[in-house]
């Protein structure tokens, strides 16, 4: 931990107010212990094996220009309303479509203009505090009230420095009755690194946000991510995550439905191979009447990979008329792989409809038999079943143009085991 000091936080560039905020967070960190598997929210994880001493924040200097490695991902998104590229935590490219810019759509990077922490509480856990202390810039996406952005806004984070610790911070704010789609793409070269992202999604009354996070980090990268959202009256959020990379990759998602009639749909696809571990924790927090949430997370593990899903639907006393659903399903494709699934309900009022379901198991033998009895080779039959399993989520992603690319990436991971 020698690199993550109060002095290091204070030395980062920014306004006096931002430096003071960083220093305060770093000072709070000195009194906190790293989390352990003994804590319920970290149960089944392997957080105790994280060695933060192996990483250090990056210097302000770095390679310029958009990395060639992100070209295919950018091409797959099609036409964009805006693009921001960060390379090793530093902004190397920024653009906003002229039409979007004229209508007040902003895609900026800097201190965060005082907006950081409005949705994601810095004290949520050790790693959100760490992000507050060491994030050099915040990416800020702002869409004014009444503005509809038809093409996606894309933010790319690419990491290629070995031993680096980076702290992405993304703040998205939609005004009343605004509409937008944001794609956030995290990728890396084959490096050992630590990534600690925090994402804040603020959806005002009657606004509509579609958010997609694609994680294709290298197999020696640790990720401890936190996504917090707040949805206002009659607003809607579609938040989707595709996690294919990382050594240990964690995403904690807290979605608060704060206004009457607010709705959230939470989707995820994850596929672990080798010794990877994907770790998901979710909160569907209903804090207003007649709110609705629907969660569907699907994962697969092969070789010696592991996955964890733990989710909570919380319905508060004032949230009468809530409809909340939570589904997690997992395929275990190898004898040495494992998956944990722990759904939970916490309901403080009777007038609600809530359910949760989870399943962990191998490929359905009846499905396999059906295909093989019609001449499909065993390895092809299993691949078809796995891809069909994921199709339910991939088809609902907010950027359909990316679905084919992600379908191919999943098929490639499956083929590594088949070979």
Spatial extent as radius of gyration: 21 Å
Tally of separate helices: 8
Q: CA-to-CA gap between the ends?
A: 41 Å
Low-confidence stretches: none
Describe this structure in words.
This protein is an alpha/beta fold and 419 residues long. The chain has one domain (6-363). It contains 8 helices and 22 strands. The chain has helices at residues 6-10, 16-30, 71-77, 98-102, 126-134, 365-372, 378-394, 400-418; strands at 56-57, 82-87, 90-96, 106-110, 138-143, 153-159, 164-166, 169-174, 179-188, 193-195, 198-203, 208-216, 221-231, 236-243, 248-257, 263-272, 277-286, 292-301, 306-315, 322-332, 338-347, 352-361. The strands form 2 sheets. Strands 1, 4, 5, 7, 8, 10, 11, 13, 15, 17, 19 and 21 form a 12-stranded mixed β-sheet that branches. It has a 10-stranded mixed β-sheet with strand order 3-2-6-9-12-14-16-18-20-22. Strand 2 and strand 3 (90-96) form a beta hairpin. The longest helix has 19 residues, at 400-418. It is globular.
What keyword list fits this structure?
globular, 10-stranded mixed sheet, 41% strand, 419 residues, 8 helices, 12-stranded mixed sheet, alpha/beta, single chain, 20% helix
Concise overview:
The protein has 419 residues and is of the alpha/beta class. The chain has helices at residues 6-10, 16-30, 71-77, 98-102, 126-134, 365-372, 378-394, 400-418, and strands at residues 56-57, 82-87, 90-96, 106-110, 138-143, 153-159, 164-166, 169-174, 179-188, 193-195, 198-203, 208-216, 221-231, 236-243, 248-257, 263-272, 277-286, 292-301, 306-315, 322-332, 338-347, 352-361. It has one domain.
